[in-house]
Specification:
Large ribosomal subunit protein bL28; 27% helix; 78 residues; ribonucleoprotein; alpha+beta; Ribosomal_bL28/bL31-like_sf; ribosomal protein; structural constituent of ribosome; two-stranded antiparallel sheet; Ribosomal Protein L24e, Chain: T
């Protein structure tokens, strides 16, 4: 599963881990990605979305119909 949110577009960012001796090593910061199923009444079926926890909160606020309509307008295949 790729660490990419379909709602917010969050992706991994890269940086350094800095040890006590100040040695820097590369690391990757992944967003908290969840695979969730939602029933969409306008489509009459369930859709499976890869969303971050912030994306889940956006779906709770705006509603799944509005979010799915926006994703379909962007050309995302559901």
């Amino acid at each position: 599963m790729s660490a990419h949110c379909q709602v917010t577009g969050k992706k991994p960012v890269f940086g350094h881990t800095i040890s006590h001796s100040h040695v820097r090593t590369k690391r990757r910061f992944d967003p908290n990605i969840q695979r969730r199923r939602y029933f969409v009444p306008s489509l009459g079926r369930t859709v499976r979305l890869t969303v971050s926890t912030e994306g889940i909160r956006i779906i709770d606020r705006r509603g799944i119909d509005a979010v799915v309509a926006q994703l379909l307008a962007q050309g995302v295949k559901l």
